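Example 3.2
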Amino acid sequence: ELRVVIMASLWDDLESLVNTPSSFSAKTGERGTIKPKANFNAVDDAEALRKAIEGLGTKEQTLIDILTHTSSAQRQLICEAYQKATGRALLEDLKGDTSGDFEDLLAALVTPPAAYDCHEVMRAMKGAGTADSVLIEIFASRSNEQIKALNDVYLRETQKKLALELKSEVSGDFANALLLLAEGKRDVSTTVDTEKAKKDAKTLYDAGEKKWGTDESKFVDILCQRSIPQLRQTLVEYKNISGKTLQQSIEGEMSGELEELLVAIVKCVKSVPAYFAERLYESMKGGGTDESTLNRIMVSRSEIDLLDIRAEFKKLYTYSLYSAIKV
């Protein structure tokens, strides 16, 4: 199982961690695969989409060509031009003319990023049982700005506070952790306090490996509130104290959705692109593809760090993300 060894070595390697760039501070457009289209004309694109939708049989290729070669901001301008020209919402027309996973993908492309994140969170909370893995993925990987924008959309669309709704869906330490993340108030300082990192590492060691029974609240407080650079140093200090990585300790000491969330945070602290590469691989392995996860990651990261996710995927699995999706 070479792949398991490669994955293990990826998450265990802390050597270069402290100084590598982080996706949390990546500006939109820097490491994305989708760039704004040159010589862009929203009216022309809206007209081409109208013809593709209204003609006999929807011309899927036209929809794909236009919506995947424009940035999210440009797509919003196309939506406005389409509404003006037809009196109809492009999103509704796309939904009416396409179906299944293709419909979901096109709908994701014409939805602003914060609204898309918000709708995915709503979908995860709807119905019997909450789709914890979707909530975990979104709240562990998004920046404070992205989480605040998601909260704003939620309040605007539902007249309710997301935190209060989440509280009624989840419980225990998992709820405490998720609610802390959902505030979008993680420390954003870029300076690292090595003494504090040593102290936090010792607190985590004493709360987990060293005692009988685990004090989960200490893990929640530190992992959900410290800055990314500070946590990277803490991971290094933790390994120095315990001889294990923090991820190994969490996996050994905890279970269920709290374990999944804290491990996701640790992975994102180390490398958001590697975390998403692994999520993409998991979504496509085995019998069927988890299309909603595949869609969500491809669309939501397309202007942030999909180039890096692609590189990590190739490094981890030796074949390209492109070839994995194409199969």
